[in-house]
Predict the structure of Sugar ABC transporter substrate-binding protein.
Amino acid sequence: MSINKFKRTLSTFCALGMVASVAACSTPAVSTSGTAGNGVAEKGAVLKVAYWESSSSDKAGWDLMFKNFAKDHPEIKLEPQLYPSNTFRQTLDTRIAGNDWPDIVRYTYQRLGKFKENNVMLDLKGKISEESLNDLVPAFRAAVTYNGKLVAMPHHTDTMAMFYNKTMFEKSGIRIPKDATDGWTWEELTANARKLKADNNLEYAFGGIWENGSGYRYLPFIYMNGGSVLSKDMKSITINSPEALAATKLYETWQKEKLVVKTGFTQEPAANLLFVAKKLAFTFSGSWHLSYMEENMPGNWGVTYMPQVKGKTGSDMGGNSIFAYSGTKYPNAAAIFIDYMTNKANMKAFTEASNFIPVRTSLINEGLKYTGFQKEMEVMLNIVKTIDPKLADDETSTRFQQINQIYGEIMDPIAINGSMTAEKALEKAQKDMTEALK
């Protein structure tokens, strides 16, 4: 990845209209990891760290960080609590209901809203050095800032691309987009899906990871067409628009023609499983799935760019933050761990090992060398710069988790059996989301 490409990626994120101010901390950093405040862990500190691993590369990143932290901070004991990615949120909710909070939690930016509003996140202001904070990409610093508090630290980002079966694409003579401006049009996507399905005797042509409560991963189709979920002032719902309807009707067409897998937006993941089983010609998946694809269909897959509408493309703003429970017995130790995981050196090591994208401007400017899939990660990094600023703004709003849940439930009838029309779905989405926004 060239430095110029990284800088273009950075400029896009810096353009996201999401910069929020965080009160400056004048206390100098005194620990080697850059933590502000006293930087001294409580005696006998034991941190329960709740997280998931989405792939073998993700596991490699976490294993590396846990090993290094134990060496660099022997005064703090870690108790990693690993849960399956598809049940992590439900497991955490169950624990919280039983007043059994972990000290540290890995969580997606899109779903931080309920924790922010319930005031259960440790305020890290004054515990992370201002120098470290100033290196964060503004969009992500804003995503973890709420009511003047620093409620989490951004850890990394990722995005979605089109993964394709090389053999099937060659058989059907399907062109591979060369860059982000060369993506298929919606019409081309649908025509290619029809051809790939027929030529390769497939039940369905493609799928996507807008499953298991992650309906927001289909939203880039709405935003690339000029639609949005929230108004500019974030005070009203705008999903029942002609632009959003066109994107929803597109999915309705795919469902009726059995081009897209009939998996609900709230159901268990299936797209990647079907893709590596050669039951699909392509799928919309994430950068963290690179190692999974190679492990399960070595050499027979590739990555290319997202579709586009009248020259505008886009993708999902993914990734995760790390926060501490406000009731932890060890707030200093928790802050040390979070700072350690998200400082420059460790963010670089983690993202290179796990095939994620950093959220520090210095790392983006300097460039990364991934332990694997360098070519594919360059595609992902070029896609990142196409993320719609309004999508990023909407997806990190405080009520987005409720909005996303409504969206997934309303899309289910379209995705599973076509029992609801696109028009009726968006009418209901507009009504239910407006109520949730109150």
The first strand starts at residue 46 and ends at 51. The CA atoms of residues 88 and 95 lie 11 Å apart. Residues 56-72 form the longest helix (17 residues). Residues 160-316+399-437 form a domain with the D-Maltodextrin-Binding Protein; domain 2 fold (CATH 3.40.190.10).
